[in-house]
Amino acid sequence: MEGMKLWYLHNLLIQKATPETNMEHIVEKIRSMEEYCCDCYDEKIDLSSQKFIEMLVVAGFFIIELFRKMIGDMPRGMDDPLFNRLGMLPTVLNDLLLLENQLPWRVLGCLFHQVPVGKFKSFWELTQRVLPSWRGLEYFVSHFPNTFQSKHFDGEKVSNKGLQ
Length: 164
Fold this sequence. Notes:
This protein is mainly α. The protein has one domain. The protein has helices spanning 2-15, 23-31, 34-39, 49-70, 88-97, 105-114, 123-130, 137-142, 146-152. α1 (2-15) crosses α4 (49-70), α2 crosses α4 and α4 crosses α6 (105-114). It is globular, with a radius of gyration of 16 Å. The N and C termini lie far apart (32 Å). Residues 143-150 and 157-164 have low confidence and may be disordered.
């Protein structure tokens, strides 16, 4: 799975090479919110600072690129390791819902704005296009605790509008 995430990261970063898409710049942006990110988890993070930041960046860009491909905002190549393996996409989507695989919304929003490609203005806008196509999320979104929303969504209201 880690190899697939790195493949997605590489493909995303080579699309629009700018000073803002330089990996050092991106890592510093995420490092600046490390304390906030650690506070988003109930349990102590059992990774070094460097590994934690690396995990946030790699996993975050993987999610962004996955969502963009799911709705056709990015083409799916013949060499795509996720969309060209039977049964792989549902497995990955189910894994994303696991509590231990959640990333702070602020990280996803920040990473989204570091690579300005595609037609969406925010990660939230992209997510609202992805959720209706993701079977089984009706329950997840309709039961999303308000306290979790306020802590992780930086004031963006989550609704299940469009999921019905």
